[in-house]
Amino acid sequence: MSEAERELSWRHERGATGLRLGSGAFERVLGGTTRRFPSAPLLVVDESVLVGHRARLGAAAEACGGASIVALPGGEHAKRFAELERVLEACAAARLPRDGLLIAIGGGACTDLAGLAAALWMRGVAWVAVPTTLLALVDASVGGKTAINLGAAKNLVGTFHAPCEVALDPSFLATLPGPELRSGLAEVVKAALLSADDSFAELERFDPKSELSSPRWLDVIERAVRLKVAVVERDERESGPRRALNLGHTLAHGLEQERGFGVLRHGDAVAIGLVAACDFAVARGLLRPEQRARVVALLARFGLPLAPPRDLEVAAVLRALQLDKKIERGRLRYVLPCGLPAATDGAVAFVDDLSLDEIERWLYSSIETSSSASQ
Ligand SMILES: NC(=O)c1ccc[n+]([C@@H]2O[C@H](COP(=O)([O-])OP(=O)(O)OC[C@H]3O[C@@H](n4cnc5c(N)ncnc54)[C@H](O)[C@@H]3O)[C@@H](O)[C@H]2O)c1
Ligand SMILES: [Zn+2]
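# nicotinamide-adenine-dinucleotide complex -> structure
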């Protein structure tokens, strides 16, 4: 793959979204897109990103006709009705017209909220996603899902509203705290496990300490984004094949809920969920033990956790799994890997023979293994 800026495209029911990948993609997308709109856009920015990139964002706002900037609190605090209202009030204050443009610059929480505001303002205006975390670069910016949380659970209120452009600009990652970058790597590993090409083997050769704008990082991001595009293009509304993206996520959500949302990083929970999924796959003959060992070794090399925390309340995880929407007619629908590499992009096994007892046994035995390993 060349070092020049890379262009990808994602086709969906509203047309196609262009994705530009490379350092400086932000300015290039902004320059190209804002010219097509009659009025200045509204910039919705994660406050940590605003602090870390103030001069750059100020210059960008200036360059697109004196755009207003709304800052959102970092993380899940952004995904609340109060913040949605604040962004919509800012649209009103800026007199954003029906053919206006909203630009979301931040992690997945910021782009989820801003995308929803764009879907609602005047029954839907165009928006551009500028993801600034690794997780948002490789996952949240593709697929068109937007959402906010309710007290009861995450992402209960939302809609599909695809951005018209996505700027995949890894230079924003320079200010991202290390644990957030590591957490995003779990989604990269998941994408590689779902890929039919040599993505997984490439990751085994990849050093995450490489320069963020290097071709190596661009390759890693591009492969993960291409996999997500391939899967969502086949199943925009998540009626079937898109569920493959839930690999490692059923248990991850249970673990996140047991800790209390925001305590265990999503990617860390996904890493543990991937180890469990590999173990369940080995038990069913879907994956060979040496393939499972490669996944575990890669997650370990990236500094990701392989087992639940020692003080885990197993019963609470099982209760959360029982309430999960992946339970159909009393059976837990589970996504397992089958083969490394996958036979085709997004190929997984959907099983419904996995009992809560088997998950309980896995949790207890992996906690024990991790405790004895760390003694
Ligand atoms: N729409 C989708 O398809 C989709 C897919 C996956 C995840 N999500 C959603 O994404 C959210 C998680 O996103 P996330 O992991 O990007 O986390 P996040 O948006 O919560 O951001 C994590 C932290 O990093 C900070 N931050 C962001 N960019 C930064 C930067 N460049 N420099 C310094 N700090 C920075 C934020 O302020 C926050 O504190 C969840 O709400 C999840 O539901 C959505
Ligand atoms: Zn995820």
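# post-check
Residues 6-175 form a domain with the Rossmann fold fold (CATH 3.40.50.1970).
The radius of gyration is 20 Å.
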